[in-house]
Amino acid sequence: MHRAISIFARKLPASVLAACIAIAMQPVCAADPLDDLFIDAPASEPAKAAPGDAAASAALPDFEKEAQAGSGWKGFSQFELARTPSGDDHWSKARWRNEIGRTGKFGQGIKWKAVGRFDYDFAYGWEDSFYPGAVRDDKRNEFTWREVYVDVPLGDLELRLGRQHIVWGEMVGLFFADVVSAKDMREFFNPEFDQLRIPQWAARAEYFKGDIHAELIWIPYVSVDDIGRFGGDYYPVQPTIPGLNSVYRMQQRPEHKLGNSNYGLRVGTLIKGWDLSAFYYRSLDVNPSFSRQIVGSNAIYTPEHDWIHQYGGTLSKDFGSMLLKAEAVLTTDRRVPVSSNVPDGLVKQDMVDYAVGLDFPFENESRFNMQYFERYHIDKARDLLPSKRENGFSLLYNYKFTDRVEGEALWVQSLVRNDYMFRPKLTWRVQSNWRAQFGADLFGGNGNGFFGRFGNSDRYYGELRYSF
């Protein structure tokens, strides 16, 4: 791979090579949880679809559509306010988010894009007696590069170098095959999903020929899920052990060295209306495993990232009155917690995640989506904390009241622990460049469940965005 990169570099124009080097040397802020099972949706920049797939184009957000139309400055400024009434009533968000970017061309068909984002959250100054100092410092302010890359056409190949979104999942509302994306989990799955994803510093080569689309990726500078600091509203605390105090250390992010590179291959095709893909991905898991050490009366947990292998596939088929989608991923060597007293409280497990969904569009541009999902542990280890089969379902209904007002409700239910997440939302497009949203993020059921553990983190929110 290093030899191939060297050969390619000698063929690039000097100005383009200099731009690539400058982009690769850009610093990135620390924005890199527990489970990779849930929540996916249209990305900030979806993976390029196989020819004939109009859904991916329709899924592009406003920012990306505008970027295609011109090369000026594009972005948004948004204020988000949230109140958490459960448990100790407090302001959980008062964030001012600003995202701005620009696209351009170098010539010879070479294009570039750069997008940055700055956040400042006033709530972590207002609530200085509620949140620990480490949480306040982690969430008060932050700058991140969202996308910084160049696109280089090479005949049937297109090469993208830099910080970019690589989205392989295709399910609506849930996350399964999107194994490359890291996520900002400090607000769980509550933010809009294009904002939740963390991009990767990567080299991606895409090949297009007829109905074939192949994708080879190399990630030398790995981003992983950002779970925040213990004491945050949605920190993924582990089940308590009777008689022991739980202590949480800092997340151990992978070192930035070539030995920690991730790589993968994905191939897709269109056969008689069936959109099919298969992939292999070898990586440091973006989701941390919490290793456990018993010291005196303390159970000390350290979030770590392990090497895993993932083999998966997706399919979709439009039947006119409904759209069928399905995904499946086999993951090997992921470490999973056990109740027995093994040295680090973890054992390696092989597991299959899969989901099947149906999407029904209606004439008034409303739609209804339902999905069944499951994680199956192939050889369940003794004393494994998760069940052999972790399954559930989701229901999503979107209704368009007028051209400017629409409502949406998402319900995700576990069938194992009877816990749930419910997210109703109302969107009002005040003007072409102004949007207001109001909603709630609600959790309930079993307090040891994936959703139920956040029963005291219910929140009600409002957002106002200006796009330019």
Structural description of this entry:
- With 468 residues, the protein is mainly beta.
- It is built from 7 helices and 23 strands.
- It has helices at residues 2-11, 14-24, 54-58, 62-69, 123-126, 133-139, 193-196, and strands at 74-84, 90-107, 110-121, 141-154, 157-164, 182-183, 197-198, 200-209, 212-221, 245-248, 262-271, 274-284, 289-295, 298-304, 307-318, 323-337, 346-361, 367-377, 389-400, 405-414, 420-431, 434-444, 459-467.
- The chain is globular and about 65 Å long.
- The relative contact order is 0.13.
CATH-scheme architecture: Beta Barrel
Order of helices and strands: HHHHEEEHHEEEHEEEEEEEEEEEEEEEEE
- Biggest β-sheet description: 18 strands, antiparallel, barrel
For the CA atoms, what is the radius of gyration? 22 Å
Mean pLDDT: 86
Oligomer: single chain
Helix content: 10-25%
Give the structural class: mainly beta
Q: Separation of termini?
A: 41 Å
Percent range for β-strand residues:
over 45%
Number of structural units classed as domains: 1
pLDDT < 50 stretches: 1-70
User: Overall 3D geometry?
Assistant: globular
Task: Please tally the β strands and state the result.
Answer: 23
Keywords:
mainly beta; Porin; 468 residues; 3-stranded mixed β-sheet; 23 strands
Task: Detail the topology: elements first, then pairings.
Blueprint: H1 2-11, H2 14-24, H3 54-58, H4 62-69, E1 74-84, E2 90-107, E3 110-121, H5 123-126, H6 133-139, E4 141-154, E5 157-164, E6 182-183, H7 193-196, E7 197-198, E8 200-209, E9 212-221, E10 245-248, E11 262-271, E12 274-284, E13 289-295, E14 298-304, E15 307-318, E16 323-337, E17 346-361, E18 367-377, E19 389-400, E20 405-414, E21 420-431, E22 434-444, E23 459-467
Parallel strand pairs: 10-14
Antiparallel strand pairs: 1-2, 1-23, 2-3, 3-4, 4-5, 5-8, 6-7, 8-9, 9-11, 11-12, 12-15, 13-14, 15-16, 16-17, 17-18, 18-19, 19-20, 20-21, 21-22, 22-23
